[in-house]
Amino acid sequence: MNLTDSQLILAPMEGVLDHLMRELLTSLNPFDLCITEFIRVVDSLLPERVFHRLSPELMQGGQTSSGVPIRIQLLGQDSNWLAENAVRAIELGSNGIDLNFGCPAKTVNKNKGGAILLKSPETIYHIVNNVKNSLERSQIVSVKIRLGFENTTLFNEIVDAVVQANANLLTIHARTKSQGYRPPAYWDLIGQLPYHNKIDIVANGEIWSLADAKNCVAQAKTTHLMLGRGVLALPNLASVIKHDVAPMNWATLCILFKRYCELEQRGSKSFYFSSRLKQWLRYLKIQYPQAEQLFTVIKTLKDKEDIMSEIDVIH
Question: Which residue in 60, 81, 178, 306 is a FRET match for 149, CA 20 to 30 A apart?
C-alpha cells in the first residue's frame, strides 16, 4: 500500500506540541497542516495577544518556517463566543478553524468543554453551524471528536451533527473519552461510517509506525491521518509513512536535541528546556532504548550545558 498521497496532520497536544516543537517536527516531515493547542473560549472575545502567544506563526503568514499551514483550535461551549473568536483567528491569519470536542482532561470536561460535549450532538451541531456561518464560505472549519464519552452509542449521531452543520473536515480519535489513550484504537469503527462521501475524514490514534499507518488506512477507509504521540516517539514518522524512509537513528536524534536547544534559546520559554526535553524523552523511550539511559542521567539536571554534555556522552 502506497501512502505517498496521504494527507498528514500534526496533532494538537496540550502542553506538548507547542510552536517550538511544531517548528522542529515540520522541518523534518512532509506535514500538510498543523493544529495548535486549544484556545479556551468562555464568554468573551479574546485579545490578539492570546492568539499570538499560542501561535507565533500567525505573525509569519500563518505557517511554520517550513511552510506548513497553521490552524487555530478553539474549545468551548458557547457557540456565539466561539464564532466571534473564530472570526478573529481568521483575521489574524489562521488557516481555517478547528473545533475541539475530544479533549479528555477532567478540568476541561468539568467546565463543559472538550469531550463532555460528545454527550450532546445537538450542541455540537449548533457550535459547528454557528462558527461555519460566521466565516466566509472559503474558510475551512474542521472538527475533532472521539468515538463517544462513556461508549460509542452516540457515535453516528455525533458524526451526523458535524456533517449536517457543513464542517469541511472531521478528525476522529478512535477511542472514547473513557478509554483515554489505552490501546487499541478502534479504526474499524471509522471505516463503518456511512459519511465518507460527504466529508473528509481523518483517522487518529495509535499510529506509531508505517505498519500502523497502513493498518489504520485499511480499517478506517481514509488516507488522511493525524499524528501525535507517534511522531514524538519517532520524530520523522510522517516521512517514514509518506516516503518510506528509514526511521531516524539515535545519532541523528542527538543532533536534533541540539537543534531543539537552539530553538528554545531563541524562544520565550528557554528556561523550560530541561523539563521539555525530559518530557519528550518519555515518548522517545518507546522507540529508542538510549532515551531511557539519557533520561536517567539528566533527570536531576537543569542547566542546558550540563544536559548537552551528557547527550554528547551517550551519543
Answer: 81
The pLDDT tens digits of the residues spanning 218-266 come to 999 999 999 999 999 999 999 999 999 999 999 999 999 988 888 876 6
For 146: left if phi > 0, alpha if psi spans -120 to 50, otherwise beta; the answer is: beta
- Residues 119, 18, single domain; the answer is yes
**Residues 47-87: pLDDT tens digits?**
999 999 999 999 999 999 999 999 999 999 999 999 999 99
Q: Is 240 helix (H, G, I), strand (E, B) or coil?
A: helix
Indicate whether 123 and 264 sit together in one domain.
Answer: no
Residue 103 known to be catalytic: yes
List b or e across 224-239, with b for residues whose CB sees 16 or more CB atoms inside 10 angstroms.
Answer: bbbbbbbbbbbbbbbb
Catalytic residue among 34, 103, 216, 261: 103
The number of folded domains in the chain is: 2
